[in-house]
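Appendix B. One record, verbatim.
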Amino acid sequence: MASQTEDGPDTYDFIVVANRLPVDSVTDSNGNQQWRMSPGGLVAALEPLMKTTDGAWVGWPGAADVVLEPFEHENIRMVPVALNAEEIERYYEGFSNDTLWPLYHDVIAQPSYHREWWETYVAVNRRFAETTARIADVGATVWVHDYQLQLVPGMLRELRPDLTIGFFNHIPFPAYGIFSQLPWRQQIISGLLGADVIGFQRVADAGNFTRAVRRLFGYETKGTRVWVPVGDSSDATTGDRSHVSGAPMRRVIARAYPISIDATSYVELAQRPDVQARARQIREELGNPRTIMLGVDRLDYTKGIGHRLKAYGELLAEGRLDAHDVTLVQVASPSRERVASYMQLRDEIELTVGRINGDYGSIGHSAINYLHQGYPREEMVALYLAADVMLVTALRDGMNLVAKEYVATRADLGGVLVLSEFAGASDDLRQAILINPHDIEGVKEAILKAVEMPVAERRRRMRALRKRVLENDVVKWSRVFLEELTQSATEHPVSHEHPDDRR
């Protein structure tokens, strides 16, 4: 429960720390500002827990120079962290999205390394950590999320060693040969090691992290366990590390906790008569083609949209698909539109779409329906229901929840999922048609297999996929992570034992 000190702010037993608050600012018909809950999966996972624990959420409200006092929305305490325009440019658009994002996605685009970006990243992470430290009750549990805030666990450990700290990385963690390019690699690892439990999307990501720990710090690791000397004076901002001989050891867990979706909400939406009616309407608006293929992505170079279009265009050119029988609907929601590489990507995608439509479209029918905008969840579910084939061709993706959303909606056991093996979802969804998106011929064969798949095989595959998604939803994900975090803090206190003595 929240408590209040005599002269200080309210304090909380459970705190979520993320780059963004889980609310969006909207203006009503009278011009008044209001808040509404964001539709993201993380919000769906943590909203019930935060309401029952009377927790707080620390995050940026989403606009520059917005200074707000803590407020409550739908029984969740919001604690805003203000950022000015320069900080947004350097910390968020710069270091987070033009340095870390491309680096962590296997350098699909070239990362930029600027010292002033790093300095602002450190300053903003410290502001998040100090805000959290002020409102955390004694012995509170703090769950920090994602790559924008990798220094926060270490800073919190220094400020408040009484806290139980978890961290979850929603994007991939790269192999050491790639991660080692980062000039501030030691500082990032030191910051993450401030957590008691560090979660990753895939087993390979956790392995990449522990290898980086061994290479950069020489700490003992065994499986998912890392032993960190408590007396080590590693600084999360400088990376300096002065080991103290005979220091007690603190055990950190680093392992995979694959995230999922609020499956029940998607199942319920897909059963609504109005959503089903909209799905039928979409097919009619597209001219009732024999096959509708669907891609749903942020407009990001990691999503493999260009590879998807290339494969589809070649199938049309070879006459193996007929544009009058097959339509591709590509939803590409706007993303990071002020970053140069994203502006260039949009130009390339729109040029390719225009060329394919010019070559293979006809009056009243387009080979590709390209939609550069976001849609509400109801419309997305209607699209999922309308689509015969879902194409997920990510070049690198932490999870890709779109694949799981598509599966959850298909209670009719219709539809085929074509899924990149480089998306984390491929670890769970083995009954999809798995592809290497760099292999264009392989992608073409997978598309044809999906289009021509017999009904019995479609149903068998989708039944297995839905069982996996419905059994492992986002509520289970958060419960498993937090149970391990609590267990780690209570069962594994600081020890003077050497790791080799532990079996």
